[in-house]
Hints:
The structure holds two protein chains of two kinds.
Chain A: H1 2-9, H2 17-21, H3 25-30, H4 35-58, H5 68-90, H6 92-98, H7 109-117, H8 124-153, E1 156-157, E2 160-161, H9 176-200
Antiparallel strand pairs in A: 1-2
Chain B: H1 2-13, H2 24-29, H3 34-63, H4 72-94, H5 96-102, H6 106-109, H7 113-124, H8 129-157, H9 169-183
Helix pairs in contact in B: 1-8, 3-4, 3-7, 3-8, 4-5, 4-7, 7-8, 8-9
Amino acid sequence: MSRLWKEFSKGLWKDLPPFKLVLGLCPVLAVTKTADNGFGMGLAVIFVLALSNMLVSMLRKLIPAKVRIACFIVVAASLVVCVELLMQTYAYPLYLQLGIFVPLIVVNCIILGRAEAFASKNPVHLAVADGLGMGVGFTLSLTFLGSIRELFGYGTWFGMQVMGDWFQPFTFMIEAPGAFVCLGLILAGMNTLTNWQRKNKGLEAITGPVHDCKSCGMCATKPGM
Amino acid sequence: MDYFVLIIAAIFVNNIVLAQYLGNCPFIGTSKDSGVAMGMGLAVVFVATLAAAITWCVQKYLLAPNDLNYLQTITFILVIASLVQFVEMFLKKAVPPLYRSLGIFLPLITTNCAVLGIAIICQREEFSLVETIIFSIASGVGFMLALVILAGIRERLDLARVPVSLKGTPLALILAGLMSLAFFAFKGMAS
């Protein structure tokens, strides 16, 4: 039980996908204009991630090592098609808002990264816990970034008016530059926090999270990367 | 003239990274060195163009006549994944010098959302085959441009004294934001 909780909870803070692992940046930047868009995208990712981790873990003894990445992609793509069809039926306005980023969940590095790094090496229950934890962490991060951008960009939160009449909307925040700068500042904030904690423990400062593409797991397909 | 507008729009106005938020992982991940950035950019131009042209044909002659549009995502990603494998094998055998410079980037490209993104945008905008090819080359060039500029800036920043918490990815993201702001100036030139 404690192992199960450990695998679930690491996605919530220690390995928080967008802010600590710096994975899957495109949806993080693109769909966080408002908090509810971020939240909806997060739910779709939880669905795909938990089920793909489950399926990959169930199939891990059947999948030959050489074609494993192709198999992971097929699993993820089938689940994404399910999500697309479900969203078209039950959440059509959200589907239109997220646009091209719903099919692009397939190439979100978190899905393949977790399949490669965790689900293909661990039993089903741990893989599902890992997928759920990472998915929830991803959703919370997207909602957080979306809240900040919506609050300053529109003066609202989940569509509710928060700022008074005096508030002049800060259009920069809802456009592309705002997304980049905001995410950069959040990462810097996370680093400051980590370094402050490390300093209290008497450790040296670090400059992480270092994003060098190696964390997405794809490079594992090729020796020498 | 229309094609000219399409090219300008895809490279500058709707730049694939800085305005459409696609391909951010390789944009941040491979922009530490301008040589690497150039290689990655060329590989993306090459693969994205091939992928968009092939997926356009698949959609037109295979999926649409058989009413299988809901299989678009899964078909496209499989086409791209096999295409990348094929290109890699072909380059290794036929053009070894090119393989040495682009080879290491090819496996990364399967999960580059710019490639799948360009293919899907071409479908959603209902481009013809010629427009698809022109648009995907221009988008790829836009990606390369953004990547090479960011790599140039980051190389210069290596010697600058930056607060320790901002070093690396956070600073790269803020720089990308400023570049995106600069590219905003092209808004209204073409749509």
